[in-house]
Design goal:
The protein is of the alpha/beta class. The chain is built from 9 helices and 15 strands. It has 2 domains: 111 residues, no CATH class; 203 residues, 3-Layer(aba) Sandwich (Rossmann fold). Bound molecules: N,N,N-trimethyl-histidine.
Amino acid sequence: MEPTLESVVEVRSYLAPGDERTLADDVLDGLTRPLKKLPPKHLYDARGSLLFEAICELPEYYRTRTERLILETYADDIVARTGAVELVELGSGSATKTRLLLDAMATAGTLRRYVPVDVSAATVHAVADRFCNEYPGLSVHGVVGDFERHLSHLPPAAGPRLVPCLGGTIGNFPPGSRRRFLRGLGNVLDPASHLLLGIDLVKDPRALEAAYDDSAGVTAQFNLNILHVLNRELGADFDVDAFEHVAFFDRRREWIEMRLRATEPQQVRVEALDLDVEFGAREELRTEISAKFTPESLHSDLAAAGLEPVELYTDPDELFAVSLARRAEPGDEPRGAYGGGALIGFTDRAGHWRLAQPRRRPG
Ligand code: AVJ
């Protein structure tokens, strides 16, 4: 008989009752502002999550498949460069991407521990079980909590730690919050640990806008779905047909903005909040921003958060990128940023990091 490798699973919860900002609070804030907006997280009820999965399969929506391709290509390199023994997963990531990284760690013989962090206890237990079965001997330390607020509860690193933040979630944060979030991530990195950040790249505005306004109209349904959520959860009476989907690339801010535009003046009642909301003709409600990056803008954000780039992995068409970064140690010389294996850029004489290949001009 072969000795069986026992997996060790431990799950701790840090959520307190009444801890969460509710949909009701967000809607009350968002719909009483002079420029109406709602946080994008409310797009994802059961139907919204299915619609998002459908978006990921659309021909115009290059992000998901491109990020997967980058990880397939470079997972071994990432593990070799970082020597990671532990993977910290923030939020229920995609099983496919997590598996690519865990597989690479297992193949390199470094894999020891998996640390899933999610607000849902059920999710933490489910991923813990799944990966324990797939990787015999893996130890799992689950954390039930909000990764924007409970990162201080992570267990001490078991060794070089890899913290993926994939899917481009970072893009939903406006610039100041983005840096605050990155700084928070930096705090869970010891000098031996790395952050792995998925970012969408600035490109031809037409390609960007097509990705957020697809010809099959799936993204429009996804966006409008937030009104169904408000109708169901808060007893609102939005006439969903009286709103249209808007998506455009803000060239100055370098982000995609999704909005819902009232096609005619209307009044909406939100029963649960005892709130009446007026929409003027063509008034817009912002539902999401999705930031796009250049190597330079990423570099500035990392630096402002006390991080430094180690490597930038991209696809042949430079549609999407995965950045490997670590904590910048005070007084450190920049440690040969982007040297080594998958070199795709360089630091120019002004100290700006540039892609190695000239960027393809759109059109
Ligand atoms: C899940 C935030 C990465 O910004 O592309 C897809 C969400 N919005 N289509 C993105 C989304 C419209 C997506 N993220």
